């Protein structure tokens, strides 16, 4: 067999070996996971979730950029599209670990992967890239935050719709917010374990699977329940957001980058659905742990950090 064919076969066999077997249970057996006391406090791991094959070139570039940051100990791509041929999942940068999950569940975004060796984990969308300053500032803020807190750049909120007797999901309200999105957030490894392994959350995780939505809302429930406080909003550097619908339709990343995301497809129904998730999580847990936060930790004055392509220029998406 020619050398190049043997090498390609070896790569495919190695790639197939990292497929997660047994779903969440494989990460919650208490034996395969890292020792919490040995987790490094001075570095962080980036968990990148991937599903869309159209986004693979962008995902590879983003993974490589995060891997080059001096604070990042490891980048782990959790690929949750079981139908993707192994041959398409080659050519990731050498510093990036690729793992295929057993299902397409959005709960896979928070799997406490046994290769994680840091106390802090950045959970990031596959179309969002925080620059070096933004990542460093967010990590520093997390280090000085209350244990169990989420630190992020993209705020959202909730409120009780008294007329309908239901919770509603909204953009950040003037002066306050209660959630941060998984476009980019930093959390503790302990929260990954609690989210994925707590029996109390099994029914809520089933809602995420049924709706194919709301995993980030559930993580905000988990974090606020743990910390007793709301999340921490930070502002520093800049973040390129290819998936924001405010990008020009002819942006360099292409219209396909925007149409894959849940929020881009759902319109107003997406916001309604997320309000229903809040109401359902409240019912299942028997309590409302979400707490409002006020203000933000800033390095520089400005608006939401996402950058969009408008008229051939990268500007803040809210401009």
Automatic annotation (TrEMBL):
Question: Which InterPro entries does the entry mention?
Answer: GT64, GT64_dom
Presence of the UniProt keyword Disulfide bond in the record: yes
In the record, what terms sit under GO molecular function? glycosyltransferase activity
Signal peptide (residue range):
1-21
A Pfam family this chain is assigned to = Glyco_transf_64
Q: Which ranges carry the Glycosyl transferase domain?
A: 45-297
Q: Which GO terms describe its cellular component?
A: membrane
Q: Which UniProt keywords apply?
A: Disulfide bond, Signal, Transferase
Q: What is this protein called?
A: Glycosyl transferase 64 domain-containing protein
């Amino acid at each position: 067999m020619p050398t190049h064919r043997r090498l390609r076969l070896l790569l495919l066999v190695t790639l197939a070996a990292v497929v997660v077997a047994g779903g969440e249970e494989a990460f919650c057996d208490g034996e395969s996971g890292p020792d919490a006391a040995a987790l490094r406090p001075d570095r962080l791991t980036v968990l990148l979730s991937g599903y869309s094959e159209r986004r693979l070139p962008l995902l590879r570039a983003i993974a490589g950029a995060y891997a080059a940051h001096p604070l990042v100990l490891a980048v782990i791509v959790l690929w949750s599209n079981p139908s993707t041929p192994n041959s398409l999942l080659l050519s990731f940068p050498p510093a990036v670990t690729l793992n295929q999950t057993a299902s397409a569940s959005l709960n896979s975004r928070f799997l406490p992967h046994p290769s994680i060796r840091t106390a802090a984990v950045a959970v990031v969308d596959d179309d969002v890239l925080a620059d070096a300053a933004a990542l460093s500032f967010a990590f520093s803020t997390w280090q000085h935050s209350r244990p169990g807190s989420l630190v992020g750049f993209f705020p959202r909120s909730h409120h009780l719709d008294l007329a309908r007797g239901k919770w509603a999901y909204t953009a950040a309200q003037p002066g306050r917010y209660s959630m941060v999105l998984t476009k980019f957030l930093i959390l503790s490894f302990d929260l990954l374990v609690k989210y994925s392994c707590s029996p109390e959350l099994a029914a809520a995780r089933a809602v995420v699977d049924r709706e194919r939505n709301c995993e980030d809302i559930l993580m905000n429930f988990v974090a606020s329940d743990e910390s007793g406080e709301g999340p921490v909003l930070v502002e520093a550097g800049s973040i390129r957001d290819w998936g924001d619908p405010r990008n020009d339709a002819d942006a360099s990343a292409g219209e396909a980058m925007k149409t894959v995301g849940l929020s881009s497809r759902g319109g107003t129904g997406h916001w309604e659905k997320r309000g229903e998730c809040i109401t359902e999580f409240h019912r299942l847990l028997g309590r409302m742990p979400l707490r409002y936060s006020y203000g933000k930790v800033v390095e520089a004055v400005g608006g939401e950090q996402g950058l969009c392509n408008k008229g051939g220029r990268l500007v803040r998406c809210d401009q």
